[in-house]
Amino acid sequence: MKIQKPAVAGTLESSDVQVTVEPGTGSVELELSSNVMNQYGRQIKETVLATLERLDVNDARVTVVDKGALDCTIAARVECAVFRSCGASDKDLPWGGIIR
Amino acid sequence: MKNAVGRDIPEELLVNGKEVYQGKNYMDGKYVQKVGPKTRRYEAPQESKIVASLADALRQCGAASGMTFSFHHHLRDGDYVVNMVMKAAIEELGLEDLTIAATSLGNAHDPIADYIEQGKVIGIQTSGIRGRIGEVVSAGKLKTPAIVRSHGGRPRAIEAGEVHIDIAFVAAPTSDCVGNCRGIGGKSNCGSMGYAMTDAKFADHVVVVTDCLVDFPNMPASVEAIDVDAVVVVDSIGNPKKIASAAARISQNPRDLMMAENVAKVIASTPYFKDGFSFQTGVGGPSLAANLFIEKIMDERNIKMGWAIGGICGPMVELLKKDKVGKVIDVQDFDLDAVNSINQTPGHYEMSASQYANPANKGAFVNKLDFVVLAALEIDTSFNVNVLTGSDGVLRGAPGGHPDTAAGSKCCVIVTPLVRGRMATVCEHVVTVTTPGDCVDVLVTDYGIAVNPLRQDLVKCLDEAGIPHVTIESLKEKAYSLVGRPDDLQWEDKVVAVLEARDGTILDVVKKIKPYHI
Predict the structure, then answer these.
(1) Do B421 and A14 touch (CB under 8 A)?
(2) pLDDT per residue over A40-65, tens digit each?
(3) What's the rounded Cα separation, in Å, for the pair A60 and A55?
(4) How many domains does the structure of chain A reveal?
(5) Under an 8 A CB cutoff, do A68 and B482 touch?
(6) Which of B271, B375, B399, B401 lies most in the core, judged by the most C-beta atoms within 10 Å?
(7) Does the pLDDT at position B40 exceed 80?
């Protein structure tokens, strides 16, 4: 999917994660901060990158502000932000397709 | 050298007879030479010991660079005294290389972090370390490793001369002109002054700081004039709103209540739960809520609690007023109900930190405890508990009386949710061992109960009462299945804090955390 405009999903509440996607400059750039960085930073990064890959996003600036979200939450917020950026979040979401 | 909880203690710390932790009651029966203070004679009668300022009091007590000043934390997050004393010592008298020996340090003491960064404060000895002080110490900015002791370990170390207090500062809600102090009757009341008592007896000099001067004699005194050199009257010793909360409320959170009910069931299944039993609980959500369910079972079985100790709050005072507990013995107060009750409600008494929890005296209250209910930041599969360091390895907690009550009690119950946010509370290895697993008996979580295999007698009690329980390993796996398996923290070699077991052996060290990059 191609990121068309900036979009945000998620909140800064405890156990949530706020994901911002913006059009990139030729590749995926990830900026990550987390209050559980020392123990889970690596896994959060893997989850974000794997989700972007599944959505076939390879050109985006992604900012992730994590407040201790579980992996399922992180994946869902990334998916939502990407679909919003493409204006494709209001109907016909591919449940069971690239959204798992 | 590895100690009895498997922690590697650097050899350079094992000097002057320091040993690594060997297990519970290792020092039992050994002798200790107590060290007395060098105190000044005031033979000529004095009308008053009031001096004009903290700076004058410091001068009168011979304050000098390199000294150790002690403080107590009954004013909690409302305390002004630590900051104003250190400011006078450093900015007015120009002192350096100072050590702060406090019963606890918290967010109220953030300005001290600046003095640490400037190298003016070079040592911290405490039972709790939070806020900016915890951050700068974790960042390796304190010149010497901080020493963290339990509330019982601290008076033990003072009596043995391992901490020599040059000047003790007593934050007194009321004092008379010669230094008889009480925790009530003023405008910044804290109730019990138990943590200040040992300091006043073993410091070379004692300075009372008060914001409410009362007529002589201020009786019954918590700290007595016979130990006091000077009295300083200031505008305010603390913010009353932050000293004691209005009233510790019992949690309405259904998860907390479920855990609390299970704590009560576990307690009631043991042979120690009989008329006259003794009890201590923390003031955390589920720990405090356990009171409610225990009271219900006490009523059902028509038994009463003999006595309760600890940091005291309203719900325990209520039990006393309802005649459901015989006596409450109090080292610190957490809310106004408790503050207003001490020495007022019949059966509500004050005690010193040593009387409460010191493992080297001849019989602290903790040694007579049947039950203690405590919280944990983390607990590992060996039942070791961490209440000091966060999951990022930064100092932000307080052993307090946790290790003392766990070791002394017949049944120590830890109650904690299985996970907090993404943090697994039940884990493979705690970041820092603050209470060794051989002192912890039962773990109650929202996903199940586990009994320490060392306590087969308690396993039998739970089985007979039909209380389901699982292994702590299975709780850990459940936690990791929810939040994922955490990566190990990465440390540098520099030791930033030494954690003493209550008997004075070394339980663990905290190292400087490596900055994390992904």
Answers:
(1) yes
(2) 999 999 999 999 999 999 999 999 99
(3) 12
(4) 1
(5) no
(6) B399
(7) yes
pTM: 0.94
The answer to whether the CB of B483 falls within 8 A of the CB of B417 is no
Proportion of chain B above pLDDT 90, given as a percent: 94
Domain presence at residue A80: yes
- In 3D space, the residue among B341, B294, B290, B298 whose CA is nearest the CA of residue B318 turns out to be B341
Structural domain of A34 = 7-86
CB-nearest partner of A42 from B391, B423, B518:
B518
Inter-chain touch A36–B422, beta carbons under 8 Å: yes
Q: What is the pLDDT of residues B71-119, one digit of tens each?
A: 999 999 999 999 999 999 999 999 999 999 999 999 999 999 999 999 9
CB of B513 within 8 Å of a chain A CB? The answer is: yes
Interface of A with B (CB under 8 A): 14-15, 32, 35-43, 45, 67-71
Provide ipTM, 2 decimals: 0.89
- Is A91 within the bounds of a domain? no
Q: Which residue of A has its CA nearest to B480?
A: A70
* Total number of residues shown for chain B: 518
CB contact under 8 A, A41 and B490: no
Q: Is residue A52 part of a domain?
A: yes
pLDDT digits (tens, 9 = 90+) for B184-211: 999 999 999 999 999 999 999 999 999 9
Question: What CATH number should be reported for the domain holding residue A15?
Answer: 3.30.230.10
Which amino acid appears at position B51 of this protein?
V
A36 and B513 in contact by Cβ < 8 A? Answer: no
Rounded to whole angstroms, the Cα distance separating B148 from B160 reads 16
Based on the number of CB atoms within 10 Å of its own CB, is B33 exposed (0-12), middle (13-18) or buried (19 or more)?
Answer: exposed
* Nearest CB partner across the interface for A41, out of B482, B513, B516: B516
Question: How far is Cα of residue A26 from the mean position of the Cα atoms in its chain?
Answer: 17
Residue A11 within a domain: yes
pLDDT tens digits, B123-165: 999 999 999 999 999 999 999 999 999 999 999 999 999 999 9
Contacts of B484 in chain A (CB under 8 A): 40, 43, 70-71
Interface of B with A in 118-137 (CB under 8 A): none
